[in-house]
Specification:
The chain is mainly beta. The protein has a domain at 176-402. It contains four helices and 32 strands.
Length: 448
């Protein structure tokens, strides 16, 4: 589709904002000087367009929608100065409201959306998980959740490794379990999921040998807390643990150099199924070779491992993870581990999924669009893993297919040229790739 005003843009980025009530979609193309805002209906028919100057802040944190006015929240790098860009598609006018906010001893974690409202998340060293909603020229605290941890303070915050002068950073990864995620993402010890009006905050308590799950209802702000004991080894004690949440079930993983076990439980703590790997014995629930992939931001080397003992040794030394999604009646799962890679300059590549953009273009916050972050992390993973599948009752299902929707995007991108301003988003249960063709000056939306 041809969009007016895009020829003015250089170093473009795109952002997609879905109205959950009308199913309209606002698509924003912008650089450091100009914004081109477009409103489409659910059938991607163009309804309105306006062009205006870019705001002074360039970190997009999320959006709120009131009628046909889309309020885009941006901040400076320190998260102390904020702007709300009000885009009114009826009057075709845009305005900006600036405000200051001090998080004090808290650290900004990210943002989520529900019913066209924006919720901003933060944490402090006392392990309080704090939810605020975007109000007029500021934030309003609506819920504070104490996250219990037997390990130490700062469960939701961390000091990055290999950074001598680093400041405290978020230790929470937002997961979109509707799509594939990399082991690098799901190996995080603290994860946040959203399904409709529910938030699921999971934390790994290895000292207590359990996963702790907090369930928050955004409708009435009620909170429930549950704990799920880790699987136990048959040969000895497991060294590493992790978990994954999908379709009201928890998938827990424990491993050592001699063995690995997966428990699938419902939220009532009942074990639905169990899978086990023992050193030097064939894996009886595997649907792929064991893969070992190469490093982040380097040549993507991928080779196969045939030795089960090497797989167990690698995933027990590295950070382990389990990740899955549902496609039709089949659950697609990946089990393995990854090792953090130190890039040039001594900075560890973060597992939270930060996206860095240069040339003055806006930055996509690591939790702004978890679907896009899942896609980018999937493309750059550094892991040892194998794939498997479960049926609707979580029994092992033999399945030869391996290509997922992100693989399809990767293959599709090889057929096109001159595309920039890429984004990946879900609308009405379908995954779309959007991009701008800088040669033909058209904006493309492709269902994958």
């Amino acid at each position: 589709m041809k969009i007016d005003g895009t020829s003015k843009l250089k170093n473009k980025e795109s952002f997609n904002f879905l109205n959950t009530e009308t199913k309209d979609l606002a698509m924003i193309l912008m650089d450091k000087k100009t914004v081109v805002a477009n409103l489409f209906d659910k059938d991607f028919e163009l309804k309105s367009t306006l062009v205006f100057d870019s705001p002074k802040h360039d970190n997009i944190l999320g959006y709120k929608i009131i009628g046909n006015t889309y309020q885009i929240l941006l901040s400076n790098n320190s998260k102390k100065r904020f702007s709300i860009v009000n885009i009114n598609f009826d009057s075709k006018r845009a305005s900006t409201d600036d405000f200051k906010f001090d998080f004090g001893d808290e650290k900004y974690l990210g943002s989520i959306h529900y019913n066209n409202q924006l919720y901003v998340l933060s944490a402090n060293r006392r392990n309080d998980f704090i939810i605020r909603e975007l109000a007029d020229k500021g934030f309003s605290t609506i819920k504070t959740i104490p996250v219990n941890s037997k390990e130490s303070n700062e469960k939701l915050l961390t000091f990055p490794k290999a950074q001598a002068f680093a400041s405290i950073q978020p230790n929470l990864t937002l997961i979109d379990n509707r799509v594939p995620n990399s082991i690098e993402q799901t190996a995080s010890e603290n994860k946040l999921y959203q399904k409709d009006n529910f938030l699921y905050l999971s934390t790994e308590d290895e000292e207590g040998r359990q996963t702790v799950l907090y369930k928050i209802d955004l409708e009435d702000l009620t909170l429930s807390e549950s704990s799920y004991e880790y699987p136990k080894g048959k040969i000895g004690n497991f060294k590493n643990y992790n978990s994954f949440i999908l379709d009201d079930h928890i998938f827990q993983l424990g491993s050592s150099k001699e063995e690995l076990k997966v428990h699938i439980k419902n939220f009532d703590n009942e074990i639905i199924n169990e899978f086990y790997i023992e050193i030097d014995k064939p894996i009886d629930f595997i649907n792929s070779p064991i893969f070992q992939e190469g490093g982040f931001l380097s040549f993507k080397d991928k080779r196969e491992l045939e030795d089960i003992s090497k797989f167990l040794r690698k995933v027990s030394v590295d950070k382990i993870g389990i990740t899955g999604y549902k496609d039709g009646e089949l659950y697609h799962f990946t089990i393995g581990g990854f090792r953090e890679v130190v890039g040039g300059g001594g900075m560890v590549m973060p597992s939270g999924g930060y996206v860095v953009s240069g040339g003055g273009v806006p930055s996509i916050n690591y939790s702004y669009n978890p679907t896009y972050i899942a896609y980018t992390s999937y493309s750059t993973a550094n892991a040892t893993f194998f794939n498997t599948h479960f049926d609707a009752d979580f029994n092992y299902a033999s399945f030869e297919g391996s290509e997922n929707v992100f693989d399809k995007i990767k293959a599709f991108k090889k057929t096109i040229k001159f595309d920039t301003a890429e984004d990946v988003f879900i609308q009405e249960g379908k995954l779309y790739l959007s991009s701008y063709d800088s040669w033909d000056k058209i904006f493309k939306i492709v269902e994958m």
